[in-house]
Amino acid sequence: MISMMAAAGLALSTIVIPPVADPPPPGQITIDVVTVIGSGCRAGTAAVAVSPDNKAFTVTYSDYLAQVGPESRPTDFRKNCQLNLKVNVPGGFTYGIAQADYRGFAHLEKGAKGTQKASYYFQGMSDNDQRSKTWSGALSDSWQVTHKTDIASIVYHPCGAKRNFNINTELRVDKGTSDPKKTSFMAMDSTDGSIETVYHFNWKKCPK
């Protein structure tokens, strides 16, 4: 019969300690917007800013709306945005994205559906982190989606490499069985510009 002390020692030996993120690098991180392409982020309608503590950066949209209805164009049911960003990181550090928070507003008539899709990856690497969520009408409310990545599964920018960070997002509205005389829409923006997408960094020191 195994003693209680031995059993406790056996239990402790099976505990897996998850990796711990390093603190952010000193100084202020900057991000250069290399290219902005898409019907949801026309020129001048998307802005990027880094938080003062270097723990996250935000993307603010001012004209990102997909809709169907009487006054909509045939292409309005889907809007997308592709951002190519150069994150200027101090030597000796690398980063990955631990969490992304997406917010907006939706008005979906009964029978309509709205979908938000997102993915992000480093240039030259596979786009292997694609997420999506669908809402069904009737709905008229703010929406929010949080994509979390386990710290052990975070993909980091290769140390010493020069690869930009790509973000692909999409909003789609399907009228379904809703009244064709009524409009349904999904937006990833707001009238006061307060709604923004937040990407949370996870920092790690490069091996010497």
Automatic annotation (TrEMBL):
- The residues forming the signal peptide are 1-21
Q: Which UniProt keywords apply?
A: Signal
Show the coiled coil region(s). none
Write down the Pfam families for this protein, in alphabetical order: DUF4360
User: What PANTHER family does this protein's entry cite?
Assistant: PSEUDOURIDINE SYNTHASE RSUA_RLUA-LIKE DOMAIN-CONTAINING PROTEIN, PTHR38847
Query: What is this protein's name?
Result: DUF4360 domain-containing protein
Keyword Disulfide bond listed: no
The source organism is Lentzea flaviverrucosa
